[in-house]
Specification:
Layout lengths: L18 E4 L3 H8 L3 H7 L14 H16 L9 E8 L3 E2 L5 E2 L4 E11 L8 E8 L8 H15 L5 E6 L4 H9 L3 E8 L3 E9 L3
Parallel strand pairs: 6-7
Antiparallel strand pairs: 1-2, 2-5, 3-4, 5-6, 7-9, 8-9
Helix pairs in contact: 1-2, 1-3
């Protein structure tokens, strides 16, 4: 079913039952932008996993401020705001009294990164995706899961026609992830903050 804006919580993918993408209250993002992890944790939704120091790194504080600045001039940006990638780690199998292994139904959700669009679709329907995985959680498939969820969500939004990802040339892992997901290299662009980047796009209008 198509939506005029990204759907509400959570963003998921049917093939990724352990990964979900959640939005959060604006005051929580303001606390993250200010580098106050304690305040941010006090403002997170009930039952949400603990926020980690990764979310208040210097780079991420700048990220939250840029996203919040977008809302000052355009509240329609809010559904496209960066969100938190949560992984529900399966528990270890438990041994029953009879000695056989039983799979526990409980899980331990953890925040493993942030993911979102850079903003609402532009004049040609292009939305750019961005994500960052906590360094302690990298090389565990979370980046691949994040992008796959975002492709899935972009396909559900009526106004989104093209999905873009910009990758720094030296970040070969991200390059492989976007290519494996079906995005095609179209050229390069110069980012004011990060410098020269390789641009990949795919059609998500169908």
């Amino acid at each position: 079913m198509a939506h005029s804006t990204p759907p509400s919580n959570p963003w998921t993918h049917p093939a990724l039952p352990n990964h979900s993408v959640y939005s959060a209250p604006i005051p929580m993002f303001e606390a993250l932008a200010a580098g106050d992890i304690s305040l941010a944790n006090s403002l997170k939704p009930s039952g949400f996993p603990a926020l980690t120091p990764f979310l208040v790194s210097t780079q991420n504080q700048s990220h939250w401020r840029r996203r919040l600045d977008l809302l000052v001039t355009d509240r329609e940006q809010e559904p496209w705001m960066s969100r938190l990638l949560v992984y529900s780690k399966p528990s270890e199998p438990l041994e029953s009294e009879a000695g056989s292994l039983e799979v526990s139904r409980t899980s331990t959700p953890i925040v493993v990164g942030r993911v979102g669009f850079h903003g609402k679709p532009d004049a040609r329907g292009m939305v750019e995706v961005g994500y960052e995985i906590d360094p302690t959680e990298r090389r565990k498939g979370h980046g691949k899961a994040a992008l796959r969820i975002m492709v899935h969500i972009a396909r559900e939004v009526e106004g989104a026609k093209i999905l873009r990802a910009c990758v720094m040339p030296e970040v070969w892992i991200s390059r492989r992830i976007v290519q494996n997901e079906g995005l095609k290299y179209i050229g390069q662009k110069v980012d004011a903050r990060r410098g020269l980047g390789d641009v990949f796009e795919m059609d998500v209008s169908s």
